[in-house]
Amino acid sequence: xxxxxxxxxxxxxxxxxxxxxxxxxxxxxxxxxxxxxxxxxxxxxxxxxxxxxxxxxxxxxxxxxxxxxxxxxxxxxxxxxxxxxxxxxxxxxxxxxxxxxxxxxxxxxxxxxxxxxxxxxxxxxxxxxxxxxxxxxxxxxxxxxxxxx
Length: 149
Hints:
This protein is α+β, with helices and mostly antiparallel strands. It has helices at 12-18, 26-29, 48-56, 67-73, 77-85, 91-97, 116-140; strands spanning 30-34, 42-47, 61-64, 110-113. Helix 3 runs antiparallel to helix 7 (116-140) and helix 5 crosses helix 6 (91-97).
């Protein structure tokens, strides 16, 4: 990852190179299937994160937004994810622990969250435990991990 110099002009490629490598994405934790009709169609059928959600629930904390925070994060779980966890990629965790499926559902004033350190610990353990299964799943359908999913 390159370090940004405020006195330099950057290209889009430079910005992409500066993006931190985030292993904790929905796509990296997903299990995939291949369409039986069209083998070029690959889709996520499940996510191993959800397997562990029940045992992670005792570590959730309740949080009530202030009026200003509520307006800022209304329908914006990706922004909240970035502000709290340093990555927009973890918004699916915020939605899941609050029984939401879509960013349009993200309109509650009181939500549940993980502390950043707890979430990182959980995700590291999940990746460690499920790495082999995820790898076998992707290889079984010739899924390229650089598909950006």
